[in-house]
Design a protein that fits this description.
single chain; mainly beta; ten-stranded antiparallel beta barrel; 1 helix; about 70% strand
C-alpha cells in the first residue's frame, strides 16, 4: 500500500514537472539598454539608443502573459537647425510553451505593438515644431528556448508582423542569458525585420 501511494504521488506530480524544461522560468522582469539601427544608405544608416523594461508572468502551467516598453532617440544637426527623433514602443502579448526535452521548450506567442514616433525640429530664432505619428501592429512568432548549460540560456524565434498602415515583415529573433545566480542573469537579444535591427542588453530577475 505504501509503495502504491508513493507511485500515485509521483504520477500526480508528473504533469507539473513537464510544464517547462528544467531551469526555464516564465516569470521574470528585466531592463537595460536598447538600440535601433536601420540599414538605409540613402538616410545615412541611422542609429538610436535608449532603454527598455519588460516582464513575463506565468498564469498557467504552459501559458504566460508578457509586456514591455522601449524608448530610443537620436539628434541630428544641420545648418543652424536641429532635429530629435524619438521612437517609443509599448507591447502586450500572450505565449504558450511546451517541453520538447528536459532542456528545450517549444514556444509560440502573439502580441500587440504600438509604435510611436515623434520628431522635434528646432530652428535658430524660431519656435520648436513637432510632428507625431503612431501605428498599431500584430505579431506572431514560434521558436525554441533552451538551456545549453546550467548557467546559460538561449532562444530563437521566427514569425510575421503586420499593421493596418505598414507593410508586413518577417521577424527573426536571437537571444541568450548568462546566469550570475539562479535568479539573476545578463541578457542580450537582437531582433531583425525588414532593414531594421533592434538590440537589447540588460539584467533579468527570474522568479
Amino acid at each position: 500500500m505504501r509503495n502504491t501511494l508513493i507511485l500515485a504521488s509521483l504520477l500526480a506530480m508528473a504533469p507539473l514537472a513537464a510544464s517547462a524544461a528544467d531551469g526555464l522560468s516564465y516569470t521574470y522582469v528585466e531592463g537595460g539598454w536598447a538600440g535601433l539601427q536601420v540599414h538605409d544608405s540613402a538616410a545615412g544608416d541611422p542609429e538610436a539608443g535608449g532603454g527598455f523594461i519588460r516582464g513575463s508572468f506565468a498564469i498557467a502551467e504552459q501559458v504566460h502573459v508578457f509586456g514591455g516598453y522601449s524608448r530610443v532617440s537620436d539628434t541630428f544637426g544641420f545648418d543652424g537647425a536641429r532635429s530629435k527623433v524619438t521612437l517609443a514602443q509599448p507591447y502586450l502579448g500572450v505565449g504558450y510553451h511546451m517541453p520538447m526535452s528536459d532542456r528545450i521548450d517549444f514556444t509560440s506567442d502573439i502580441s500587440w505593438l504600438r509604435r510611436n514616433a515623434e520628431t522635434k525640429y528646432t530652428f535658430d530664432g524660431l519656435p520648436t515644431y513637432r510632428s507625431k505619428y503612431h501605428t498599431n501592429l500584430g505579431r506572431a512568432t514560434v521558436g525554441l528556448r533552451g538551456k545549453p548549460s546550467p548557467r546559460t540560456e538561449a532562444w530563437a524565434k521566427a514569425g510575421y508582423m503586420d499593421g493596418s498602415d505598414v507593410d508586413g515583415n518577417w521577424v527573426g529573433q536571437l537571444g541568450g542569458q548568462f546566469n550570475y545566480t539562479p535568479r539573476v542573469g545578463w541578457v542580450m537579444e537582437v531582433e531583425a525585420y525588414g532593414r531594421s535591427f533592434e538590440y537589447n542588453a540588460g539584467l533579468r530577475l527570474s522568479f
